[in-house]
Amino acid sequence: MRIVEVTKEPIELYKVLKFEGMVSSGGEAKIVIAEGQVLVNGNVVTQKRKKIVSGDIIEFGNEKIRIQFK
């Protein structure tokens, strides 16, 4: 699992996927979220603008990251 440090909370889910290179664009991030391919804390999330805070674990494909406030 990779640790990702953020400087502001909360951050929207699709932005995390985009900025961490898990998808190639914000549009792609919104599509994979809407299709139910993304897990937050072990649960499928379909809200593109879901607020992510420190301690949340995001899973997509074969990647898993934990958000940590800097």
Characterization of this structure:
Helices cover 23% and strands 36% of the residues. With 70 residues, the protein is of the alpha+beta class. It has a single domain, classed as RNA-binding S4 domain (Structural Genomics Hypothetical 15.5 Kd Protein In mrcA-pckA Intergenic Region, Chain A, Roll), CATH 3.10.290.10. The strands form 2 sheets. A 5-stranded mixed β-sheet has the order 1-7-6-3-4, with no helix packed on it. Strands 2-5 form a two-stranded antiparallel sheet. Helix 1 crosses helix 2 (26-34). The longest helix is centred in the middle third of the chain and has 9 residues, at 26-34.
Strand residue percentage: 35-45%
Gross CATH architecture:
Roll
Unreliably modeled segments: none
Count of β-strands: 7
Overall geometry comes to globular
What's the level 1 CATH class? Alpha Beta
Secondary-structure map with pairings?
Layout: E1 2-6, E2 11-12, H1 13-19, H2 26-34, E3 38-40, E4 43-44, E5 51-52, E6 57-60, E7 63-69
Helix pairs in contact: 1-2
Question: Keywords, please?
Answer:
about 70 residues, alpha+beta, Structural Genomics Hypothetical 15.5 Kd Protein In mrcA-pckA Intergenic Region, Chain A, 5-stranded mixed β-sheet, two-stranded antiparallel sheet, 2 helices, globular
In short:
By secondary structure, this protein is α+β, with helices and mostly antiparallel strands.
